[in-house]
């Protein structure tokens, strides 16, 4: 096999065109076809962009287009080095896809001028492969997640091939290094293929990369050790490289086709060895080889803008012109500035173009989940706070049937914690995906399944993002403390969603749903390192249009919240819920009403008779709700005349002013719940200042006193944990006594009793190693 | 070579003793030597701990002790599966180190009873290898960082060997997967050695591990691909395994000694291939092989507590007794309950014991940095706000001389951004460490050096933590947005420091210093993905005793802050500073005074004549300070009679109430700056609500109006960025007009002018692609 000279010429022309358009984007304000002499005013005053990775991205794009056409492939392209934005934009424009989305950027000279001018320009487009870029599901601004996204896109897309450029800088990151093992979770029957292309251009911003500076033998051993068959394409002579890349792609795609055929027909024994390409080509390939006396092409100096003084330095300007003309634009663009016919006929058509593939605009393909009626899974109601259930276990039954009803469009990911988080009912419907070796002792492991467990929060998050971005649904169940591991990935996904919400052509995708459990208050086995409710603080820094936070206090509210989240679009929903046996407070119908409101007075626990209270006890989260109800119970017995109102918060966003968040309450609504002048003792699941941050503008804020986690903890009993943080029922009563005036002479005496109770409980715990039975088995009065 | 039968017996006895003590910790309240029948009341009511990994950790410990003695090694032990806490505690007790630190936990029967009882018990010790555990620098509660910590400990410790157990669960995490390449950054001359031991016990909490379920050939290729020589120790027969492990350790330590000898004498060509051990042994080895009819030893079911109902189930209790007696405690402990003489003589002595090695209590070894006088590096003063400097470039000169003065105890780490962050003066004194291949084109790369660059924030953080925990100093320079990648690692280090502050025997270590630059306001090349100032929000969730945040507004204040941070102990200091050319506001002497106060009125920019102001303009961060001064300049010209006070905040903690943070101000101090009743317009570097969170308790809080980053951004000009977030000078003037009463009739007119100015500037930017010259080159009036 091999490419004919003609085909090489055509691909080379296409590559030259993309390179020309990339350089133009970085430098030119005007004179896009260099029909005039290049003058300072044609040059952008601020040269912002990254040339170094761009020619390599263009090279792969051109070659992928050839195989897409030759094999009628359904392919998307993930560019790990997303700062090579000009490459994606250039190719989208060449293919015509860009002009279909952005009508004013026409495929002619005026359009080319706009294309150049808008890049990295105020009011224009970002320098990266951003949401604004057609064909992108991966911005790559923060490095490390390309391969995880690629696998996520491939899951349950049996006919899709995801080509994924991994930059050799990115390859140094932990998340990327951990992503190679994704091939142990890819089912060759039901999933598509990922073709990783490790692009060794040798340098990062300022120095060499590790994988480019180890012996090739070692590099190949890495691939083999991760179960890949590496194919090396190495050189700098374009003609040779075109031939070699074409060969390599044919070899790789033949292997993929063969694996899939065997797996899907005769049956494939064992785990397939998937191909991967190692492309070694110079950084800034085809750019200026030397500038101001130092080498640039093939070094880190070509990372951003190889010629930096083009506006002021005539020699630089001459070099830029020479550089651009070296691509021979006269052969590439016609009199109107459109790509010549030979180029226009080269790329695939319609949805086969990588810039227009519907998988890269997943909302186009998204279908609603088929959801069973969550009411059917609710805990039976036997009175408020009288029945014990495990919230996540109840949810597990619902999820089991979600999985049954959506066998190809829903995945549950988590770091080896599905059972530990008590969602194990899902294994009645499905298994954990496991492509590595199986042993007879294994349970719930299979080559295909809806549950994905790997001890890497990064992979869980990256896979799920790739899955959602290509139009499917999912849930990430995670230990609360360790979701901080993906703070940065959350941030980037939130930014992506925020931008896509402003792009009408990007169709809404399913929300990213987090179930945070094994939370701060119940780390009985582990202790301090496992106690951190601060993800909520990270989440609330992101725009109100994107983030939602729910703290259902029991099983039935969790069901209602989960149903709502699974139906939603373009959000990041964070649900915090307990997995331990805990009281159930509401019937399913009450739970629906309460969750719909997001916040509400629990009359059955209040003693204000629906009138003005003396004090408001507010709570959010399962453990704080328990302590609040126990405090209300104590108060009812200790101060029978005291009018106590209990308010429970499920939807944390309700606390914000209406102008700050769509779920926010007006001041009138807020004061109807929290009063305008009574003390509010708020028991909160997380760090207490988060509630203040949400509520500081409210009139009664000076009266708001929040208890929460204040970074006190260790391996101890559940009740000792709340005592360590002054969130316990006795302390809440003390807080009431300290803040409500006129409780009479008994108050000081009762306060001392509460102090003594705390000491007694602490002593009991330290003596017996467990909470006193009256605390442990406490049930709200019938 | 090989171990004699005698030695095998002795090591086996030691291992049995450690296993016995581990099981005892998990289960027993009393009857530690099983001298009585085992009754329910001898069993802990809550069984909390992790058995699965423990016997493997004990196995390695016993064998490492042998080689420490045989070779007089200086060795510490990092236990990646830190939840195997009983192992570390058991060995420390056997060696006597535990009783030296915790006097009441004596090495006899009463002490053993305490040892057992305290584990995972309220008021006792955590279940993990926590700060409370002698010999630990790595808690391992959150998985992924063991190997990075190990390398950090080995840097600049040429005589130290760091044995590092990597769990096969942990091996799935991204950060761990990325850590193997640390060997490209280890200098065999000036650094010590790391001996990784990948412990394949095959299972995580609920399922198998990837690396245990791939063909051994693939596994070995991984090691070879990462430049290691793997030595496999595999089996379950103790006698065989003792012999094999001893052989493997001898082979590995011979290799290490040989590499170091050659590197340090004759000179070693190329990068050495370091040894690594692969230990394949059953999870829960020597524990119950079957419980209630299902296999336990060698499966995930032994992860936590193999026998779960020991208190209530007589059969389980019988099995526990049988299990413990299988270690033959009668041979291991004497009549007093102390280890028999044969055991006592086995471990090394004094500081050679891994539980008492001073490197694992780094503060014991810590020496002050030799710091040059930072005053000598300050920008010359030519008037407030009249001179331009690049803050981080100025800092670079100081750091250069810090490096010169401390050639073996200070490292600068960062993800390939030292030059990009303009600290390149350090290359006048040192190089970047680079153990991989070198090419003639390379600059500032060498086998040894003080700068460590790798495109992995996880490695930067992990290396630095390991380096600090073993008693050295350093600085992590990072793009502000991407420090979120290590949010979780920051959290864990803060937790570690918080706990060690309560342990007198743990000596203070150098602070972890972050320099966050390339910040949100100046991401000219990149855009939205690179804009995130939210790390401060994460930091402020951690205890006041540990965290410090500084926002020096210019070069001289940055110098003063840096000097302070480098002298401090046991803190995490976060310094946010710009790298772009920016105005210098204070002379060095003024900067020292300002930074010492942490907050202050800038009289030279104020027009309140030292009296009561009409409005306070507050600012924190370089760009907000610039906009605030420009706003003050506008106000002085537009409203000559308006009394404006300018307050600048360097030390963010000053805003908190005195009771909340040691740096916090009293209400009187606060009101002396911010008044008790005047509007305060606060221009903040980060998310605006963070300032509210700090200041909500202040009397004048209702008058506090904060501008900051509100998640609006893209690739655009610096001034457009501040305009997008309403932080620009014109908007600050509008904010003043909207909040100060009695500005007269002209106010509405001036307000409109400000609105028009903003539109004019936006139009200019969109037309010309750069900020207007009067904005860009704005200088505070002389």
UniProtKB/TrEMBL annotation, chains A, B:
Alphabetized Pfam families for the sequence: XFP, XFP_C, XFP_N
Domain of life of the source: Bacteria
InterPro entries: Phosphoketolase, THDP-binding, Transketo_C/PFOR_II, Xul5P/Fru6P_PKetolase, Xul5P/Fru6P_PKetolase_C, Xul5P/Fru6P_PKetolase_CS, Xul5P/Fru6P_PKetolase_N, Xul5P/Fru6P_PKetolase_ThDP_BS
Keywords: Lyase, Thiamine pyrophosphate
Listed cofactors: thiamine diphosphate
Any GO MF annotation of the entry: aldehyde-lyase activity
Alphabetical list of PROSITE patterns matching this protein: PHOSPHOKETOLASE_1, PHOSPHOKETOLASE_2
EC number(s) recorded for this UniProt protein: 4.1.2.-
Enzyme class: lyase
Limits of the Xylulose 5-phosphate/Fructose 6-phosphate phosphoketolase C-terminal domain: 579-780
Any Gene Ontology biological process: carbohydrate metabolic process
Keyword Isomerase included in the entry's annotation: no
Annotated Xylulose 5-phosphate/Fructose 6-phosphate phosphoketolase N-terminal domain residues: 5-364
This protein's record includes keyword RNA-binding: no
Classification via HAMAP family: Phosphoketolase
Protein family membership: Belongs to the XFP family.
Protein name: Probable phosphoketolase
Top-level taxonomy: Bacteria, Bacillati, Actinomycetota, Actinomycetes, Streptosporangiales
